[in-house]
């Protein structure tokens, strides 16, 4: 089966911008306090549950994966871009990073204690999100946690430049209620949400959703 065109565009674009991304995107220590708090809370929940490792899906150069590891979580990263994976492996040789797509994860059923999808789903066309969230549900252990964070809105963006380089990906910003509904439809129970207005380095509304896969009866 041919790869969906949006995956090709994302891979090629992030291969192009990988080095510039590292220079321009601030590290986790410079995130806003509320986003850092959500990551810390997620890490504590995953540690306490003890159900398995966390997959950082769309991990880019691995800095948030390493941040989770620093919070005591067994974490590894997955990304479409070989260049991003190469940068992550170079920067954090003690952590595991693999190429892959969240549309078809090479992971077993119930293998994960947690999933982090941190600003990594907005390049996914809305019609593909049910398949992506079904993969999240499949690979999470019963009782496992998902932390999703991204921009929100009601807009389709088609940039020609990103991080100072040519890109061909698109971005799809959806309302937070719709994202929560899609997670619920996939069988994940949303337990907390945080929505923030633009401020600081972030010029768009952004949000986090914490969800959990129900435990088996």
UniProtKB/TrEMBL annotation:
What is a GO molecular function of this protein? methyltransferase activity
Q: Please verify whether the record's keywords include Transport.
A: no
Which segments constitute the Methyltransferase domain? 54-144
* InterPro entries cross-referenced by the UniProt entry: Methyltransf_25, SAM-dependent_MTases_sf
Q: Which GO terms describe its biological process?
A: methylation
Key words, A-Z: Methyltransferase, Transferase
- A Pfam family this chain is assigned to: Methyltransf_25
UniProt protein name: Methyltransferase
Q: Which organism is it from?
A: Streptomyces incarnatus
């Amino acid at each position: 089966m041919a790869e969906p065109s949006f995956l090709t565009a994302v891979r090629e674009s992030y291969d192009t911008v990988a080095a510039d991304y590292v220079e321009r995107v601030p590290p986790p220590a410079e995130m806003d306090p509320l986003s850092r708090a959500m990551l810390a809370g997620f890490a504590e929940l995953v540690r306490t549950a003890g159900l398995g490792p966390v997959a950082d899906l769309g991990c880019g150069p691995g800095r948030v994966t390493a941040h989770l590891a620093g919070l005591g979580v067994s974490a590894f990263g997955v990304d479409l871009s070989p260049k991003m994976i190469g940068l992550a492996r170079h920067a954090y040789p003690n952590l595991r990073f693999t190429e892959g797509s969240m549309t078809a994860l090479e992971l077993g059923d119930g293998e994960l204690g947690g999933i982090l999808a941190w600003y990594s789903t907005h390049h996914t066309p809305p019609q593909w999100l049910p398949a992506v969230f079904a993969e999240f549900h499949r690979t999470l252990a019963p009782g496992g946690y998902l932390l999703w964070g991204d921009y929100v809105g009601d807009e389709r963006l088609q940039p020609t430049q990103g991080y100072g380089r040519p890109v061909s990906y698109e971005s799809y910003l959806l309302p937070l209620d719709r994202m929560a509904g899609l997670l619920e439809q996939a069988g994940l129970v949303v337990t907390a949400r945080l929505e923030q207005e633009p401020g600081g380095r972030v010029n768009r509304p952004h949000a986090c959703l914490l969800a959990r896969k129900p435990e088996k009866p």
